[in-house]
Write a structure and sequence with these properties.
Layout (H helix, E strand, L loop, with lengths): L14 H14 L12 H12 L1 H20 L20 H8 L12
Helix pairs in contact: 1-2
Length: 113
Protein backbone atom coordinates (compact mmCIF):
# COMPACT_ATOMS: atom_id res chain seq x y z
CA UNK A 1 0.00 0.00 0.00
CA UNK A 2 1.15 3.55 -0.59
CA UNK A 3 1.11 4.37 3.10
CA UNK A 4 3.83 1.82 3.85
CA UNK A 5 1.49 -0.20 6.04
CA UNK A 6 0.21 -3.61 5.03
CA UNK A 7 -3.36 -4.82 5.12
CA UNK A 8 -2.93 -6.21 8.63
CA UNK A 9 -1.39 -3.00 9.95
CA UNK A 10 2.26 -4.12 9.84
CA UNK A 11 4.85 -3.16 7.26
CA UNK A 12 3.87 -3.65 3.63
CA UNK A 13 5.18 -6.60 1.65
CA UNK A 14 7.63 -4.40 -0.26
CA UNK A 15 8.95 -2.48 2.72
CA UNK A 16 12.18 -4.55 3.00
CA UNK A 17 12.92 -3.82 -0.67
CA UNK A 18 12.27 -0.12 -0.07
CA UNK A 19 14.67 -0.15 2.88
CA UNK A 20 17.33 -1.85 0.77
CA UNK A 21 16.88 0.72 -2.00
CA UNK A 22 16.98 3.64 0.42
CA UNK A 23 20.12 2.27 2.10
CA UNK A 24 21.77 1.91 -1.29
CA UNK A 25 20.97 5.52 -2.16
CA UNK A 26 22.24 6.76 1.19
CA UNK A 27 25.52 4.89 0.86
CA UNK A 28 26.21 5.57 -2.82
CA UNK A 29 25.03 9.14 -3.40
CA UNK A 30 25.78 12.55 -1.98
CA UNK A 31 24.78 16.11 -2.82
CA UNK A 32 27.72 16.60 -5.18
CA UNK A 33 27.66 13.29 -7.04
CA UNK A 34 24.44 11.60 -8.09
CA UNK A 35 26.19 9.08 -10.36
CA UNK A 36 26.33 6.63 -7.46
CA UNK A 37 22.62 6.05 -7.96
CA UNK A 38 23.48 3.86 -10.95
CA UNK A 39 24.81 1.32 -8.47
CA UNK A 40 21.30 1.05 -7.06
CA UNK A 41 19.58 -0.03 -10.28
CA UNK A 42 19.32 -3.73 -9.20
CA UNK A 43 17.74 -2.71 -5.89
CA UNK A 44 15.35 -0.41 -7.74
CA UNK A 45 14.36 -3.22 -10.12
CA UNK A 46 13.71 -5.53 -7.16
CA UNK A 47 11.52 -2.90 -5.54
CA UNK A 48 9.51 -2.31 -8.74
CA UNK A 49 9.13 -6.08 -9.22
CA UNK A 50 7.75 -6.38 -5.70
CA UNK A 51 5.24 -3.61 -6.42
CA UNK A 52 4.10 -4.62 -9.91
CA UNK A 53 5.13 -8.29 -10.49
CA UNK A 54 5.85 -7.63 -14.18
CA UNK A 55 8.69 -10.15 -14.50
CA UNK A 56 6.74 -12.77 -12.57
CA UNK A 57 3.66 -12.22 -14.74
CA UNK A 58 5.71 -12.42 -17.96
CA UNK A 59 7.34 -15.65 -16.79
CA UNK A 60 3.96 -17.20 -15.90
CA UNK A 61 2.55 -16.26 -19.32
CA UNK A 62 5.57 -17.76 -21.07
CA UNK A 63 5.25 -20.97 -19.03
CA UNK A 64 1.56 -21.22 -19.97
CA UNK A 65 2.42 -20.75 -23.66
CA UNK A 66 5.11 -23.43 -23.48
CA UNK A 67 2.71 -25.81 -21.73
CA UNK A 68 0.03 -25.25 -24.37
CA UNK A 69 2.54 -25.74 -27.20
CA UNK A 70 3.71 -29.00 -25.63
CA UNK A 71 0.10 -30.09 -25.13
CA UNK A 72 -0.69 -29.50 -28.81
CA UNK A 73 2.53 -31.19 -29.98
CA UNK A 74 1.98 -34.30 -27.84
CA UNK A 75 -1.74 -34.86 -27.20
CA UNK A 76 -2.76 -37.36 -24.53
CA UNK A 77 -3.91 -40.76 -25.63
CA UNK A 78 -7.31 -41.86 -24.34
CA UNK A 79 -8.06 -38.38 -23.06
CA UNK A 80 -11.69 -38.05 -21.99
CA UNK A 81 -13.84 -35.80 -24.13
CA UNK A 82 -15.27 -32.75 -22.34
CA UNK A 83 -18.79 -34.13 -22.80
CA UNK A 84 -17.83 -37.45 -21.23
CA UNK A 85 -16.85 -35.91 -17.94
CA UNK A 86 -20.14 -35.52 -16.13
CA UNK A 87 -19.32 -36.09 -12.50
CA UNK A 88 -16.70 -37.23 -10.07
CA UNK A 89 -18.53 -40.30 -8.86
CA UNK A 90 -20.21 -38.34 -6.11
CA UNK A 91 -23.83 -38.59 -7.21
CA UNK A 92 -24.42 -42.34 -7.60
CA UNK A 93 -23.12 -42.31 -11.16
CA UNK A 94 -20.17 -44.64 -10.69
CA UNK A 95 -20.82 -46.39 -14.03
CA UNK A 96 -20.17 -43.13 -15.90
CA UNK A 97 -17.00 -42.60 -13.93
CA UNK A 98 -15.80 -46.13 -14.71
CA UNK A 99 -16.50 -45.56 -18.41
CA UNK A 100 -14.54 -42.32 -18.40
CA UNK A 101 -11.60 -43.76 -16.47
CA UNK A 102 -11.73 -47.07 -18.31
CA UNK A 103 -11.47 -49.09 -15.12
CA UNK A 104 -13.63 -51.60 -13.34
CA UNK A 105 -12.49 -50.39 -9.97
CA UNK A 106 -15.10 -49.18 -7.54
CA UNK A 107 -14.69 -45.61 -6.42
CA UNK A 108 -15.99 -46.25 -2.91
CA UNK A 109 -13.79 -49.14 -1.73
CA UNK A 110 -10.48 -47.47 -2.73
CA UNK A 111 -8.39 -50.66 -2.89
CA UNK A 112 -9.41 -51.91 -6.33
CA UNK A 113 -11.40 -54.92 -5.07
Amino acid sequence: MASGYGLAGGPSRCFPFWQELLACYVVNTNTDDVMGAKKCVPALEDYYECLHHRKERARAIELQRAYRRAEVAHPRENAPRPGAIRNLGLLDREEDTKDVLGTNRSITDGNGK
